[in-house]
Amino acid sequence: MMPQHLRKLALVALTITGLVGPGLSYGPCYAFHVVLVAVASLLLWFEGGRIIGRLREERWTLWYFLAFGVLSLIALFRSPSVNEGLITVVSLGCGHALLIALILLVNDPQLWRTVLFTSAVVMSTELVLSLLEAAELVRWPISRFSSAAELFGRPNDLAELTDTPSKAAYIASSPTGFHWNPNDLCTGLCLFLPFTLTSRRWWVGALVAAAVLVVVLAAGARIAYVVVALIAFMAIFFRVSRIAGLVTLIMVLIVSTNGFSARYSEAVKLREMQVFSRVSVGADIDLAQLQMSSAEEEGSAAMRKHIYRSGIEAVRVSRGLGMGLGASAAWLGAHPIPGGRVLTDMHNWWLELAVDLGLLGLLALVVWLIGVVLVIWKKIDLRDRGNGSRVGLAFVMAFIALVPLALGPSSMAYSLPMFMLFALAVLAPKYLGPDRGPGSSVTPS
């Protein structure tokens, strides 16, 4: 059996590199990949035959692994491109391998709290770094907007300034943190927000919510903007932190009056955000602005609309059976967005799964996630204000927020933080309760 100190070290390394993702990498090789191989080797060496027995304890998850694995194998054989198919296998495989590794490594409440604490430290660092980038005080070297990105085997988007000078302010202030894309960054931060809003100290949740809102506005992530309000509403609805939720909603409404600086966004994104903000608070709509926004052929909103329609058409053409792993890239290559720009990802996690694996693959994931949430929900006592119930409610809120949030990430390649959430949620029922787990000594903040 693996020694506890080695088990704890492996958990910390997996958690840090999994959440940081491309922030510690050279080209397509992440530090996470190296750590994952090392941890897998240690598990095989020390655990051996215990691995299958441990997985059998998580029957609901084991059935999901089997169903998803079979569907993925079939989709791989149907892949239109061997190269894209293998890339998708690696992307999905890393997430599921992280999930399996955490299930095998965590065997007591203390280790589970270690993962929670490490995740909180990493995401707090991510948030601080993102704020510094939004204020244009520092730039994470591996960022797509960093002049040092090439030293890490990655291209940068600074050349875009020479073709489109109007994007200078947006690119200069758009935060990326540990991530390659601002939308992926906002997805991770929004999944972190419920665990701070459920803190006993309401001002902690409100402060983090304000910081997340600043990053979301700097990134121009409209979906994340809506999700911040959704999470705040859930905090009030579940009565876990009414004051923090109310303060967060007030901040969102203040922002919705267009009282924020325009320098954080390129013109198209700003117009889209302003029109949405006016509608969200029932304010009068500037019709000229609305016409200007709807007539604009460029911008991420128009691009995403085209991708979504194209993806839905791909699902229809395949009759819901999927086109094979990596088919999303091939389909988008054959159906470029207006202007001839070719993309390789659906920019919608749910839609990309439906195109590649079919509706059965998507259904397998959704049913499993619903089962995970229901198990946690049964462990929660809404009358109990203890930390165990608060952490449990934070998981429920995070999974509800994930439904719209998964529309934002640019690719399944950036899904590691999501699988970290899945793993913690699978393990949560064992350690949630009034007399054990986080309820005894650790606050969710």
Short description:
The protein has helices at 4-20, 31-46, 50-57, 59-77, 82-105, 109-134, 160-163, 168-173, 182-197, 202-219, 222-237, 242-255, 267-280, 287-295, 300-317, 327-334, 349-357, 359-379, 387-405, 416-431, 438-441, and strands spanning 25-26, 29-30. The two termini are 32 Å apart.
Order of helices and strands: HEEHHHHHHHHHHHHHHHHHHHH
* N-C termini distance: 32 Å
* Number of β-strand runs: 2
Average pLDDT level: 81
Assembly classification: single chain
Radius of gyration of CA atoms, rounded to a whole number: 22 Å
Which ranges are low-confidence, i.e. pLDDT below 50, for 5 or more consecutive residues? 259-265, 293-298, 435-445
Total helical elements: 21
Biggest beta-sheet profile:
2 strands, antiparallel
Helix vs. strand class: mainly alpha
Taken from the alpha-carbon principal axes, the silhouette is globular
Q: How much helicity do the residues have?
A: 55-70%
What order do the strands of the largest sheet run in, or round the barrel if closed?
A: 1-2
* Portion in strands: under 5%
Count of the separate structural domains: 1
